[in-house]
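#random but structural
TW: two for the price of one
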Amino acid sequence: MFAFLFRRFLQALVVMFIISLLSFTIKNNLGDPLREMVSQSVSEAEREQLREEFGLNDPFHIQYLRFLKNTLKGDLGTSYFFKKPALEVILAKLPATLELVFGATLIIMFFSIPMGIYSAINPEKIFSKIIMGISIIGISIPVFLTAILSIYLFSIILGWLPSFGRGITVHVIGNWETGFLNVDGLLHLLLPCMALASIMLPLFTRLIRSEMMEVLQTDYVKFAWAKGLHPRRVWFLHAFKNTLLPVITVGGVQIGTMVAYTILTETIFQWPGMGFLFLEAVHRADTPLIVAYLIVVGVIFVITNTVVDIIYGLVNPTVKIVHKNS
């Protein structure tokens, strides 16, 4: 297991190096930073002097090494708009985004697992065909359309749920505030979480169904039936347990990428998270904020993939044997 973790650590370093290089390249190609740092009245000679002081005339690799050194210290520059460290601004919005992803993940797990299992066990039933039909529609409809339709139905027509904002939040610790601890916060969470979950819910349902149908045809499941075991024991202990292996692999990666998918959802629902902040930073050409967002999302993605690999190694005995022999 130690060798496995070491390999994953090295892979994470390579991925973060590539992300940092891309982020720096984007930063260098989004315009002149002096344009945001000084006024129009500053002369060209003064601008050139400032360019030398800030090292903007240095070769690309020198500037990148300086950027990498500052990044390792947690210094990703100062936001042009907020006049605060960019990383501090991004991390202040991180709890709202993670809360949205967590709520969407709960919805995905709560619905996809029972629907996937049921449609795998009863593939010819009418309800199974309805589930598969709805899942095809769900895959085809983009998240922004789902969000707009849900606002129109549940907020405008029925008036059940709020259409924007985060509602009343409860302070937990530091910058962390949550809406999970009060009714108003939960009501504000429902629509954006459902919209965000609509991206992955059909995929998870179809993945669980297809994998479980394949597992149900294996010899050890047929042997379990021959032993006269209770159907629930066969379905959940023998079949579903082995279905989880590919679901953990694919699902973990997809849940990690949902952090990036929140951009559209947060924009439509005016959700004060990282995605909404990122779009505002793009409109303002706030390059330090853009870079900080890319770095933080990259770190989350790397951590998520590492945790998924560890869980996969714990669940799959074959993987553990390979790790012990390596």
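TW: number two ↓
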Amino acid sequence: MTGRMRELLLIMARLRAPDGCSWDRQQSFASIAPYTIEEAYEVADAAERGEMQHLKDELGDLLFQVVFHAEIAREAGQFDFDEVAGAICDKLLRRHPHVFAASGPLTSAAQSAAWEHIKAQERAAAAVTPPSHLDGVPLALPALMRAFKLSKRAARVGFDFEHAGQTADKVAEELAEVRDAAEHSSHANRTGLAGDPSSEVFEEIGDLLFAAANLARKLDVDAEAALRSANAKFERRFRGMESLAAQRGAIFADLNLDAQERLWQEVKRAE
């Protein structure tokens, strides 16, 4: 262990000491988990932007989250940071027999298949309930990412459309069902029918998003990354519209939809 890593562990222990930081001492696994997720996203954002200094800082923040969890566990007599590092070392050795054992080199596709096979064996060995091919997909993942992973797991055992076109047809089918549900909801609101007609729309929108994530997987597109890119594009274009309106002495929010749409098309053409 390097001197700075040891220093970080000592700092963490000091923060959690009886005379340490009152906020740090109050934290639990559950209370810091949202910060851990947030830091992971900030690492991804810095990596995507290619900002190396920022990436270094964010990796440090994420490492601190790992150390924080490990310190809470050490205090409870569960495990410590050294055991966390040991666990990932063991896992990497176990999952790379083509590198660290005598099995020999593998192609990228064969390596991926072997990795998934080993993971499946590990999940089955650790299962305390009847095993499922969907085991191990964390509930805490963003919903779009989890949809992608669930459909990928199902596809490994044959539960999948044969062609991407069939998957696209499923998206169209789900969109039609959203339209029908929305029309039904609108009619129910107009006629004052009892119940909560929006629940049907809610369910159908969920089905549509799941189908879209499945289509992304079928086309070898990272659904989460694609949506992040779309978000960034929308934000860039929207800010561009606001900027153009301001340059022309107008307040964007005061423009009607037709004028806003013309600005949108102008910004698109300029890209």
